[in-house]
Amino acid sequence: MSEFVGVLLPLPFNDVFDYKVETTDNVVLGSIVRVPWGREQQIGVVWKLGKSSDLDEKKIKPVAEVLNFPPLSDELRKFIGFVAAYNMAFLGLALKMAISAKGAFDGAKTTTLYTLSGKTLAEAKLKNSDARWRVIELLKHYPYTRAEIAAGAGVGQSVIKTMIDAGVLSPIIVENKKEYAEPQGDFYKVGLTAEQQAAADILVGKIGEGFSVTLLDGVTGSGKTEVYFEAVAKALDNGKQVVITVPEIALTSQWLSRFERRFGVKPACWHSGLGTRERADTWTAIAEGRAKVIVGARSALFLPYSDLGLIVIDESHDHSYKQEDGVNYQGRDMAVVRAKMENFPLILATATPDLETLNNVEEGKYDVVKLGSRYAGAELPSINIIDLKKDKPQKGEWGTSWLAPSLVAALKENLQKGEQSMLFLNRRGYAPLIICRDCGHRIQCPNCTAWLTEHRNSKSLVCHHCGHSVPIPKTCPECGSETGLTACGPGVERVAEEIRFRFPEARVKIISSDITSTLADVSDVIKEMEAGNVDILIGTQILAKGHHFPSLTLVGIVDADLGLMGSDLRATEQTYQLLSQVSGRAGRGEKKGTVYLQTLYPENAVLKALLSGNREEFLSLEKKTRRLLKLPPYGKLAAVIVSGNNREQTERVAAWLGQCAPNTDSITTLGPAQAPIYMLRGKYRYRLLLKTAKLIRIQEVLRNWLSRINIPNNVRVEVDIDPYSFM
Ligand code: ADP
Ligand code: ZN
Ligand code: ZN
User: Fold this and answer.
1) d(CA 202, CA 318)
2) Residues, beta carbon < 5 Å, ion ligand 2
3) Quick one: DSSP state of residue 502?
4) How far is the CA of 473 from the centre of ligand 2 (A)?
5) Which terminus of the chain, N or C, has less C-beta within 10 A?
C-alpha cells in the first residue's frame, strides 16, 4: 500500500505538492527528495506527511528518489517558515536558500575506479595485444577511472570495456567526498591584551550556554577578529559548527590568512562565486557536519548545518546583509532568529553599530562587550575637514581638478616620506554623467530612470542599475555636435587620471568592482599594497571593508557629501559608518594616520561628529530624529513596490492599493508615488510606504491589505519589510 507526502519545492509557491511513496520507512519530515515536475524533475523537501490536496489518488505521482542526505531538521524547517512569513516571501523561495546547491543532488556521489582482478588475459581467453598490456602495466601501480586509463595507457574505450567484460579488470567504487581538514582551536594562540582577553572571556563564556546575542563593539583596529576567534575556538572545542559572515566575501584574503594562522587550516567558504562542484561539495560537507567553520556571505545563514553552535556577523552594520532581490530579508536579523530557534549564541562585531542593534542593547535584549583602544597602542587618526568653498581645487593641464590644494600638498608630503595614501570615492567609472554642452542633452539609460556612467577603462557608457552598456558616442545623439559631449563630476577613474598627472612618479592602483572584478584581481592589488608596492590606492566603498594596511598613513575622502544628501532614513547613519570605517583604515601601524574629508558643507552634523570623534553625540542626534518621526527602531516600516511592463495597468494597481490602504492612529500609508527609479530594467515602478507603531504586527496589516485586491498576472507586488533602499 502506498502513502502520501507533501513536498515543498524551491519555487514561488507557499503550498506543498502531493506525491506518493511506496513506504514511509525511509521518508521523514525534512527528507530531501527528487520528484517529477512537469516534464522535468525537481529537488524538494518533505514538508508534510499524508495527503494535503483532494486530488484523485491515482493522479498523484510517485517520488522518484529519496536522496541520501540528512533530512532538514525541525528547527531549520521552522526557521524557513519564519523567514517566509516574516518577510512575506514564498515559502518555496525561502526553502530554496537552504538547498541552493544543484550539483549536490545531480552529481554522482561515487566514482568507479578499475584495478587488476588477478585474472590473466589467457584465463579470460583474450589475445595478448600491446594495448591490453599497456593497460595492465598502468594498473599495476594504482587503480584509475576509465577515462584515466584511456589517457594513461593511450587506448580506446573499447579496449577497456572488453577487459572489464572479460573480468580482467574489476571495479572499486569510492565515495566522492572532499575532505575538509578540521580547524584546530589551539593551533596558534595569539597573546591578547588585557582588554582583549576580558572581552574574549565574556564571549567564550557564552558558548554552550544557550541563546544570547552579544555586540562586540570595538574601534577599528582594536582586534575584534582576534577576540571573536577565541569564541570560535571554544565552539570548535565543543564539537560544534561555526558560521562567520562577512560583508564582501570576495575581499577576505587577509581575513582568511589570519584564520589559517590561528586555526591551522582554511575554513570552508560559501558565496555566489563558487562553481557548481565546489558548491555541491561544500553544501554536502555542511549538511553532513564535515565542514566545521564556514565563512560566507549572508546566504550562508540558511544552510542545513548538522550541528551549529555559533554565528558571528562581522561588520554587522554593513548594508550588504540586507537582501533586496528575490526574498527580501535582513540577514543580521534572520541570524538572530535562527540562533534563538536553535538555542546558541550570536556575536555581532562592528566599530559602528547601527541604531537598531544599539536599541536592542539599551532594551537589554542584547549584551555588549567593548574594545576601546587600538591594538599595540596604534592611535586613532586625526581628522581634517577641507572646506571646498575656501580651499578650491585648481584646474590643471588634465582639466578639472577634484582635489583641494591642501590635500594635494599632504599627498605630496606623504609620497616624499615614502608612506602610503588612499583616496576614497564611492563612485565607479570615470564620470557619473555625460552632458552635451551645445544642446543640454544628458545621456540616459533606455531601461531605467538613470544616467549612464562613463567608463574610460572599458570605453563605454554603463548603467549601474541594469548593466546596459554602449560604446562612448563620438557625437551627441541629440544634436550631432562633435565637441559638445562633456563628462560631469568625478568617478574613481577620473581621480586616478588627475593623480597620475600630478604625481607621475607615484605607483597608483585602483580598486573598483568593474576594474578589479575578480577575486584574484582584488587580492593582487591588496597584496601589492601590503608589500609596499603601491603609493596611492584609489577606490570605491570596497576600500571601507576591513583591510589592514600597516603603512597606510593618509586617507583622503574625495566627496564626503555623497550620501549625506540622500533622502532615505539611513543615509546619515550610513555615511557616518562609511566615513568612520574608511578613516579607520589609516594609521593602523606604528605611525599615526591623518584623514582629510573634502566637503562643501563643513557645518554638517555628521562631519562634525566624525571630527570630534564623539560617536555618542552623533547617535543621540540621530536617535532624536528617528524618535520624532517614529522611524525604526522606534516604529516599523514596510515598502510595497508595484512593478510591471504595462504602464497603465501598473499605475492602476498602485492606485487601488492606495485607495484601500490602511490608515489608523497607529498605521499610516504613504503613496502611491512613482519610484525614484521610475523605470528599472524596462519595468514601470510605483511605491507605497506603510508606517506603523512598534507594537503593530505589520505583516498582518499587509496581508489583510494585499488580500483585498486582485493583482493581474503581469503586475508584480513585492513587499520589503524594514526597507533599506527607497529607490
Ligand atoms: P578590528 O577588526 O577591530 O578592526 P583587527 O582584528 O583587524 O581589528 O586587528 C587589527 C590588527 O591588529 C590586525 O592586524 C591584527 O592581527 C592585529 N592584532 C590585534 N590584536 C592582536 C594581538 N593580540 N596580537 C597580535 N596582533 C593583534
Ligand atoms: Zn547635443
Ligand atoms: Zn539601466
Assistant:
1) 24
2) 436, 438-439, 441, 476, 478-479, 481, 484
3) H
4) 11
5) N
- Report in angstroms the alpha-carbon separations of 210 from 72, 132, 305, 531: 21, 63, 17, 44
pLDDT at 250: 63
Closest residue CA from atom 25 of ligand 1: 190
Residue 17 sits at φ, ψ, to 5 deg, of -115, 140
The protein residue with its alpha carbon nearest to ligand 1, atom 9, reads 223
Residues 6+ apart with CB under 8 A from 556: 403, 407, 410, 411, 421, 422, 423, 424, 595, 596, 598
13-22: burial string, b at 16+ Cβ within 10 Å, e else: eeebbbbbbe
Distances (CA, A) of 493 to 407, 499, 511, 513: 18, 10, 10, 12
Atom of ligand 1 nearest to the CA of 226: 6
3-class SS at 721?
Answer: strand
| Angle CA 76–77–79, to nearest 5 | 60
State the 10-residue block means of pLDDT for the chain, 727 residues long.
Answer: 89 95 88 94 95 90 92 97 97 96 74 89 90 91 88 91 93 80 90 96 98 95 95 97 88 85 95 83 93 95 97 94 91 98 97 95 97 79 91 91 96 95 91 91 90 90 89 93 92 94 95 73 85 93 75 90 70 82 78 89 84 84 88 94 95 94 93 90 94 95 93 93 89
Distance CA 657, CA 277 (A): 45
With beta carbons less than 8 A apart as the criterion, state whether 83 and 303 touch: no
Count of CA atoms in the C-beta half-sphere (13 A) of 704: 10
Do the beta carbons of residue 512 and residue 542 sit within 8 Å?
yes
The atom of ligand 1 lying closest to the CA of 550 is 14
**Look-up of cell digits 538547498:** 99
Residue with cell 483532494: 54
User: Residue 261 in 3-state DSSP?
Assistant: helix
- Find the 224 Cα to ligand 1 centroid distance in Å: 7
Test site for ligand 1: of 226, 255, 371, most ligand atoms within 8 A of the Cβ = 226
pLDDT score for 564: 65
d(CA 484, CA 153): 68
Q: How far apart are CA 227 and CA 193, in angstroms?
A: 10
Nearest bound ligand to CA 350?
A: 1
State yes or no: cis peptide before 633, omega within 30 of 0. Answer: yes
Q: Residue 110 burial (CB < 10 Å; 0-12/13-18/19+)?
A: exposed
The Å distance, Cα 448 to ligand 3 centre, comes to 4
Cell 572532499, residue located: 178
- What is residue 566's predicted lDDT score, i.e. its pLDDT? 59
**Ligand lying nearest the CA atom of residue 480:** 2
Task: Tell me which of 188, 193, 220, 225 to substitute to probe ligand 1's pocket, judged by most ligand atoms within 8 Å of the beta carbon.
Answer: 225
For ligand 1, residues with CB inside 6 Å are 190-193, 196, 218, 220-226, 375, 548
Closest ligand 1 atom, CA of 371?
A: 3
Among residues 461, 448, 378, the alpha carbon closest in space to that of 684 is found at 448
| Cα–Cα nearest to 355, from 252, 242, 449, 215 | 215
Number of alpha carbons in the 13 Å side-chain half-sphere of residue 681: 5
Q: Which helix (H) or strand (E) holds 230?
A: helix 224-237
What's the confidence (pLDDT) of residue 192? 95
Ligand 1 center to 672 CA (angstroms) = 49
